[in-house]
Design a protein that fits this description.
four-stranded mixed β-sheet; binds uridine-diphosphate-2(N-acetylglucosaminyl) butyric acid; 27% strand; 24% helix; Uridine Diphospho-n-acetylenolpyruvylglucosamine Reductase, domain 3; 8 helices; Uridine Diphospho-n-acetylenolpyruvylglucosamine Reductase, domain 1; five-stranded antiparallel β-sheet; 339 residues; 20 strands
Length: 339
Amino acid sequence: MTTSYLNLTPDFDLSGRNTLALKARSRWGAMLEADDQVPALFALAQDRGLPLRILGGGSNVVLAGDFDGITAVVATTGRKIIVDATDHVVVEAAAGETWHDFVVWTVEQGFGGIENLAGIPGTVGAAPVQNIGAYGAEVADVFDSLVAFDTVQKTFRTFTAEDCAFAYRDSVFKRDAGRYVVLSLRLRLPRPWKPNLRFAGLAELAGQAGLDPSMVMDRVLHLRGAKLPDWRTTPNAGSFFQNPIVTIDEAAPVLAAFPTAPNFPQADGRTKLSAGWLIEQSGLKGFRMGRAGISERHALVVINLGGADAHDIAALAEHVKATVKERFGIALHEEPVFL
Ligand code: EPU
């Protein structure tokens, strides 16, 4: 492994490094281009008594203005095929790779398995942290292993799926925020490819002659494009609220009043309600408050209307939570991390 020189940039601008386009600067910035720079950077931060935080693609964060420390961006690159067997392949990508580019690359290799996860913003390193998911699939389904730096033990560690303790939009990396820096990810993609077409909008592809992963990927990108605003033109952080998983008793008033409300029974007897539906039914789709708003296209997406800061975003989120709570008695929880 090559060790590249650790370079700190003063007064590092983060405005273009978060998809909500919140204005934020960091006293110092660092681009991490090799895994062994990570322990070196933690040692340096400790020596200088500076707080250190890690940023991936900035697509799931709400940055609270200026940071008096070091913000390091994981910028490692590289993708490779580790195992190419008759019944599966194992592919690996560095944490700094763009997730969507990694998906496209696997599809180009003829490998199916993550085509349903195309178009999700962010980096490979962030994908397992919140166990990204869409269209009936999630990273945990095809996870093989990952390597992360443990900032407490100061060692590199390999994690199995069990170690990661994946759950809906959750993992040990999210629960123990700040402890680990994910450095590379391996996925195990089964052969032969079996399309996952359970989700509405994909089901119609079933039975289509010559169906391949790229056709499913194209459909997913089309569905996303039709429904979710693009952060490049309408700054946002994807789904801003998690779909609440509640007990049957908690869901009862909602389902009694709206028998057709979307709900997805879980293995543990609880049910998952749709936050987007709850917000829309609360009359908040397209709602605006100061410089932040709820997308007119998808009620789960909070958008920066121009010049918003973390306070605008938080105030809007509080209003949404209070309104949904009052209307339905259901508590919503934010998906992005407030840094
Ligand atoms: N709905 C509404 N109003 C809306 C939006 C949705 O009533 O404005 C209803 C829809 O009618 C549908 C239900 O809510 O019955 C579910 O909506 P959708 O299919 O759009 O999915 P979602 O549950 O809102 C989840 C993920 C998305 C992912 C989609 C597609 C979460 C929090 N969000 O959204 O992930 O793309 O499914 O699979 O799990 C993300 O995490 O950033 C993200 C975009």
